Amino acid sequence: MLQLAAKNLKYVLDISEKQVNQALAKKDEVLNQYNYLTILAANDRVIVEKKSI
User: What are phi and psi of 29, to 5 degrees?
Assistant: First the structure.
């Protein structure tokens, strides 16, 4: 019984680690998109300007 619980806990930890890695990859993707586009607020409109990399 204890071995089964330990095995299940290991699976939970493995899945959690993969989810953290996916979240970090998504964060990097969003930061890349954020750095690519600069949003400037004008008086009555929003201008999106592309940065040259």
Answer: -65, -45
Q: Supply 22's token pair.
A: 């996916």
Asked whether the predicted pLDDT for residue 44 surpasses 60, the reply is no
If one counts the domains in the chain, the total is 1
CA distance 29 to 8: 32
Domain that holds residue 17: 2-50
Q: Once rounded to an integer, what is the mean pLDDT over residues 39-53?
A: 60
Cα separation, 50 vs 35, in Å, equals 9
Q: Structure tokens of 30?
A: 């969003």
